[in-house]
Amino acid sequence: MFFASTHAETDEELLLQFIKENPLGMLITGIESSAQDFLQCTHVPFVLDPPKTEENPSSNPQLRAHIAKQNPQAKTMLELTNGAPPNILPLERDVLVVFNGRHDHYVTPKFYTETKPDTGKVVPTWNYSAVQIYGKLSLYYDSRSPEAGAFLWKQMHDLSEQCERRIMGFTGGDRPQPWKVADAPERYIELMQRNVAGIRIEITKIEGKYKMSQEMRPGDRNGVVRGFAAMGGETGQAISALVQERGEMIDKKKALNVSIDSVHNLVRYNKSDSTPAIALGCHRTGWFDIRKRVFKAKIQYITSSSYHMYKPAPLRPKKTNIIRSRNGCKSCRSRRTKCDERKPTCGTCARLGKICDYARPAFKFQITTVDDPRPPIEPLATATASNVLSPAQETTPTPAGDQTLTVRAAQNVPSIGSYDIIQSLQTTDRDIFYTTYWEGSCLPALHPIFNFATSLAAGHPILNNALLALSACNIGRIQAEHRTESSGSMCSLSPSLVHQTRSHLYYSSAIQKLAIMQSQDYHRNSATILIVLVLFAHLEQAMGNFQGFYTHVRGMMNLLEWHDGVKDAATKSLLASWMQIRYVVWWARAYFSSIEVCQHLPSIPLPASLLDVPQTLHERRVKVLSIMCESHRLNFNAVLQQFRNLRSDDASGFDFDERYVYCTALLHQEAAKLDAWVLQLPPSEQPIYELNDTNGTTIRFQSHDAALNYAYYVVARAMQCTGVLRLLYNPDTPQHARECDEEEYWVQTLVRIAQWSDMQTSITKNSYTIGFSGLLLAGILRCQSLAVGLEIQDWLQALINLQPTEEGAFPIYQTFHVVKIINQQRAIGRDIFAVTQPVDDGGGTPKLTGYNSQSITSLLFHGKYQNLDSLFQECISLDV
């Protein structure tokens, strides 16, 4: 245990009294054993025998206790007897016993009323008190021996007397009589004694500490006192009193140290001049006596008047706002000046009127041409063998596009084979591996149209590279590995570096082939290019690269303009897959963005070709996704507008009513679309309820995809409910009314669906669609039930225990901490209805080495007090 000077307690009598008041200790031993662990710990109630008493004639205090022989710790000690005749067994090594105080509690930085508003340099801590002792243990392990039997009988009697009288208050007289060992049958007590071992510990060292914020500044300490007093309850009042008591003790100690130093300075002055010494009636040589007499004569005066001269020096004022960092904006780095890295504009750029922009990692593709000297004519066997990569060459992956020179060289050689044979020899084991993984693991998570795309890959290198790039990216993100240096933003896992590197190589090769294409190539191979662009969009979505994703979206739109209309089924299926991934990216930007970005997120309507009655599961999925995202946009836009009005007072009640009516009208239109969608749902995709389950708490489905589609339907229903809007827009709503009962029903249904689904399947099959973690985050923001919120938190915790990376392209750790804060706020009477960033970061940076694209330390939580008709906005640290 660490004993800081401000926390340590050295008064042995006080420490022994602490043990009497808190007799339950943790007995810790370290003993080599053939069958048990080396370190053992047991909670044991102790009896303290002070030194030089009838029970303990020695000069050291002693502890007495007994533990069951079936306890592994007792078995370890009994091994040391080696079958010797019954006797008292002394242990060679010291043992440790730790006693904890009755009251301990977490201390929030919000209690620090002096330092937190001044510098903000505060962290939470924990207040507690504890005493630990070291000593020599003697084991009384056989009650049949006279000495051990007498020890055990007295130990049991004294322990029961201590607990009955001190703890229970059974002292007789007006109080009940205490229970005694003699009240039990004698034979029963004998059997009990045979199954326990007595323990006597002679204390050789005792230490203790009271960590009660006494090291804090007076203002912070007083804030802690007031904070715990306001909490109420036995623990709050006790902690408040202890902090006050220990703070006063440390202040007196500091004052005494200052007084002693002042007297020593005065004595040194007297030593250099004989006049004051003579005036005190002392000889010049008796300076040790002078110190004592001067101290007694001056101590009262010094402590009362001179203490104020020795106050702690004030804090040095901070002269600059510069934050030491290796990063900075482009403008400051170009001028080689220090940057305070403020967002969105640093102080220097704001003062100079410069554009403040930060460098972000990005890919830059170049087309490089090299000379192709004609190789000398070689025998066919030599030329063909040179085209096959050896195992050593495989360790350095080479894009398939770089193999064209080898093919040309082989074409100029007299051959007896065909070009297809030579091309087949160039297929590496790496390509076969990722193709196999693509077919076994990626295709089940994608639209069935990609089965058709796989059959075209052999004849189109650009399509093959795009498939392999997405395959390598997928396996790299599923097979996480530990980082060498982990940041505090999430767990110490990152995507597989080898697979991610190969994915970038395949991606670069495909981009190069796309860049050198001409207009006629796009017209001639429009279907292939459409598939490639959709694969690129999936890849950028998986990497969290929003800028790259929007680039491919614009390219897709330009290519679709060449078509007079989507007539064939293949193009329609590609369009459905493309729209699904667009909704996934839209959902990712709808969370963890600023309030302005959330309110201006565009609506993404379905293309005309997808408005018909859906015929397949994936067509039904993209349609319900469009309804869910639009309902989410309308609902959250209206909610966030109420919180934006907190910043301005120019909004009238008429504007509120008009906005509420307009929003509910649009939500009713989306509800009508959802009614039509659910009527078209085939029986194979509908939920299955247990016959004996009258409450409908158990929901099953025939497939994971059917469950996920129905989960989208449930979230859309929750977003179309207007209970939250009535709660926020109608100030006359009774404080006790629960406006969100309808939303709560749908959120409970969503939780049941998530609990039924297999988590491992969700991790693998939800990579390219909105997963349960994102849906549950939306659900908890529309539910006032703490019980449902805790179920969501437990589900996310179980998902983290299984694989703490991502699910549905959503960062699990980030989502879990947000849900945890929402539940904490709800427990103290504050409902949260929206979460945004204080300053938008544009979606962060691509997830090249992690699973969260944004480095978020705090978020803005928007909510309403449960018992008050008032809204609030508070920035809370995520501690992620």
TrEMBL record:
Keyword field contains Nucleus: yes
Pfam families the record matches: FMN_bind_2, Zn_clus
Top-level taxon of the source organism: Eukaryota
Domain Zn(2)-C6 fungal-type: 328-358
Entry-linked InterPro entries: Split_barrel_FMN-bd, TR_PAI2-type, Zn2-C6_fun-type_DNA-bd_sf, Zn2Cys6_DnaBD
Gene Ontology terms for molecular function: DNA binding; DNA-binding transcription factor activity, RNA polymerase II-specific; zinc ion binding
SUPFAM superfamilies membership: FMN-binding split barrel, Zn2/Cys6 DNA-binding domain
Keywords: DNA-binding, Nucleus, Transcription, Transcription regulation
Protein name: Zn(2)-C6 fungal-type domain-containing protein
